[in-house]
């Protein structure tokens, strides 16, 4: 484990030496014999976790130093170590230096070590908390972007598909009304056929949009039938052969988990259909006593799998990251292996709901 950095400030060099000898095994020690020197060291090392300083030093007191330290980086844990117990010094160290602890000399090594260890824990907790807040902000921003992209997609589908069909229906209906006046039965029959066909396409488009928004078939019949329908539609829409022995898994999962599994496979299949260029996929589901494993392999163009942990903002990573996050929510994992021109394999492993809850 990497040692935390600690800055010790004292105008007596023997104290600097003794402190370093006592705590160098546990901490990476920096020393300074004046406030200005300490500030220079601190500004050159932003990741110093703990600052321990003597109070009474020529030129700049310990409290004054800690005030500057706090202005530069408020996360560093600040400790006053002094031989004096002047009430004014104590009050100033609390009110101005915002110290973590005020320790009176002569110090005992074990007692100081306990204080330093606790200070180190607090520093790490604060740093981790800030990291998590930033991660939450990043995820919130991505969620907003995803919502906006979904709204845009729905709007485009409504405009480009259903909207165009409705315009065509209006034109055909006007034509139909004109033909009724002319009593041309052949033209009336032809127009009625066109109207019927357009209505059917509009109905299918509406069902498709509804299915993408919320898979009602999962709620009504469970994910086994829903996944069969998903695979059938995928094969039809993308002209891709699906090799599968069937997926019989709903008995092992709660309804909530079935929705998540459906969404994971839906996203994987969408990626395959849009980007792989494959003519065939193979999907296999295996259940044992406490877990499910689903393997999906395509034989398309493949890609270079992004480092989802380190490059989540990279263009094209969002869909794969969403898949991984859904798997994590279910207590499972997904391994994505791909090579250019050799296809992609996704291995999804999930604990049964009974095992998870």
Automatic annotation (TrEMBL):
Residues 5-120 form the Response regulatory domain. SUPFAM superfamilies: ATPase domain of HSP90 chaperone/DNA topoisomerase II/histidine kinase, CheY-like. Pfam families: HATPase_c, HisKA_3, Response_reg. It catalyses: ATP + protein L-histidine = ADP + protein N-phospho-L-histidine. One of its GO terms (cellular component) is membrane. InterPro entries: CheY-like_superfamily, HATPase_C_sf, HATPase_dom, His_kinase_dom, Sensor_HK_TwoCompSys, Sig_transdc_His_kin_sub3_dim/P, Sig_transdc_resp-reg_receiver. The modification 4-aspartylphosphate is found at residue 54. It comes from the Bacteria. Keywords: ATP-binding, Kinase, Nucleotide-binding, Phosphoprotein, Transferase, Two-component regulatory system. SMART domains: HATPase_c, REC. Residues 257-354 form the Histidine kinase domain. GO terms for molecular function: ATP binding; phosphorelay sensor kinase activity; protein dimerization activity. Its EC number is 2.7.13.3. This is histidine kinase.
């Amino acid at each position: 484990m990497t040692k935390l950095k600690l800055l010790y400030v004292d105008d007596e060099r023997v104290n600097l030496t003794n402190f370093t000898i006592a705590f160098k095994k546990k901490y990476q020690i920096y020393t300074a014999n004046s406030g200005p020197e300490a500030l220079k060291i601190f500004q050159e090392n932003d990741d110093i976790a703990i600052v321990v300083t003597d109070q009474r030093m020529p030129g700049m007191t310990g409290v004054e130093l800690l005030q500057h330290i706090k202005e530069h980086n408020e996360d560093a844990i600040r400790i006053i170590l002094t031989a004096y117990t002047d009430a004014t010094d104590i009050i100033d160290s609390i009110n101005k230096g915002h110290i973590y602890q005020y320790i009176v000399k002569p110090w005992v090594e074990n007692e100081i070590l306990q204080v330093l260890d606790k200070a180190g824990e607090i520093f790490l907790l604060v740093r981790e908390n800030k990291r998590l807040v930033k991660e939450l902000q990043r995820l919130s921003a991505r969620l907003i972007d995803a919502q906006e992209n979904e709204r845009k997609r729905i709007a485009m589908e409504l405009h480009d598909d259903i909207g165009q069909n409705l315009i065509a229906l209006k034109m055909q209906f006007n034509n139909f009304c004109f033909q009724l006046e002319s009593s041309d039965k052949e033209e009336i029959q032809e127009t009625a056929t066109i109207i019927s066909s357009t209505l059917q396409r509009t109905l299918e488009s509406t069902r498709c949009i509804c299915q993408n928004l919320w898979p009602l078939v999962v709620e009504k019949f469970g994910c086994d039938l829903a996944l069969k329908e998903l695979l059938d539609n995928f094969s039809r829409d993308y002209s891709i052969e699906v090799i599968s022995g069937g997926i019989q898994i709903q008995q092992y999962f709660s309804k909530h988990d079935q929705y998540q599994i459906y969404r994971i496979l839906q996203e994987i299949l969408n990626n395959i259909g849009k980007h792989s260029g494959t003519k065939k996929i193979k999907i296999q589901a295996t259940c044992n006593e406490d877990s499910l494993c689903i393997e999906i392999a395509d034989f398309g163009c493949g890609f270079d799998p992004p480092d989802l942990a380190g490059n989540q903002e990279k263009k094209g990573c969002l869909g794969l990251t969403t898949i991984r996050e859904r798997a994590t929510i279910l207590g499972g994992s997904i391994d994505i292996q791909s090579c250019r021109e050799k296809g992609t394999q996704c291995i999804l492993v999930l604990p049964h709901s009974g095992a998870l809850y």
